[in-house]
Amino acid sequence: MLELTHGRIGYGPITIVDDLNITVGEGEAVFLIGPNGAGKSTTLRGIIGLNPLTRGTLTWDGRDITKLPAHRRARLGIAAVPEGRHVFPQLTVVENLEVAARVTSHANVKERVDDAFDLFPRLAERRGHLAGLLSGGEQQMLAIGRALVQRPRLLIIDELSLGLAPVIYQQVGDTVRELARSGLSVLLVEQNARLAMRICSRGYLLSNGAVVLSGTVAELEATAEMRDLYLGGLGKVG
After folding, report:
1. Which of 57, 92, 171, 204 is deepest in the core (most CB within 10 A)?
2. What are the domain boundaries of the chain?
3. Hey, is 41 helix, strand or coil?
4. Cα 47 to chain centroid, rounded
5. Using one digit for the tens of pLDDT, what is the confidence trace for 79-116?
6. Are 200 and 217 in contact (CB under 8 A)?
């Protein structure tokens, strides 16, 4: 289980989020939503080790990993899909996956790459293409595949649907939902509240660097804030 306790994260002397308490249980899918500037991406950067905590504690399976660098956290089973995808544009699809697989282990690289192709057959069709020439949806599939070849126990995704056509982000979202249902823990930052609530079972609403609401999807659906600000008064998520 991942647990962030009284977390304060920022950039140099500037604090973006403060006193955050967030947990992701084994096999649980959890979302973070909120307006632009709420601190969602900063929170993820703190969890994966790109922005150090200036206060608070981050634990993984009861072990304090607050001071561990990002690559050590990856080897413990925490993998991230960054906002904007950030694939290696001059490498082919298969080369992107192979490089990522070796982050955690040099064993069974081909098997792990083949698993990613099984999950995203479109990538298998593009295996020899340069990643920089893929469509936005294909790059998002590749970014998720790169994280999965590390065989993580927690998959962190920043803005799954950003820049994607609805039909594509629904397809990718369905894949992530199936991964979560198979037992992979997921922490999802997402502007599309309906998509996030369809994938996840529980979540947090951030505003101005603080958690202002948290609970199960059913509990959050029942609040006026979620209905008015994020669900457009359209009722429950399907």
Report:
1. 204
2. 22-52+69-77+156-238, 86-152
3. helix
4. 11
5. 999 887 889 999 999 999 999 999 888 999 999 999 99
6. yes
The DSSP secondary structure of 120-176, one letter per residue, reads: -HHHHHTTTSBGGGS-HHHHHHHHHHHHHTT--SEEEEE-TTTT--HHHHHHHHHHH
Q: Give Cα 206 to chain centroid, integer Å.
A: 16
Helix (H, G, I), strand (E, B) or coil at 179: helix
- CA separation (Å) from 238 to 178, 196, 231? 15, 11, 12
Do 150 and 100 touch, CB atoms closer than 8 A?
A: yes
Q: Say which residues have a Cβ less than 8 Å from residue 48's Cβ, sequence separation at least 6.
A: 70, 73, 74, 78, 80, 156
Q: What is the pTM of this model?
A: 0.91
Contact 40, 89 (CB under 8 A): no
Q: What is the DSSP letter of 211?
A: E
Cα 66 to Cα 37, 44, 51, 216: the distances in Å are: 24, 13, 11, 27
Angstrom distance (rounded) from CA 87 to CA 142: 7
d(CA 24, CA 2): 5
- For the structural domain made of 22-52+69-77+156-238, what CATH number should be given? 3.40.50.300
Q: Which residue, chain included where needed, has tokens 């930052």? A: 189
Structure confidence by residue, pLDDT tens digits, 53-72: 999 999 999 999 999 999 99
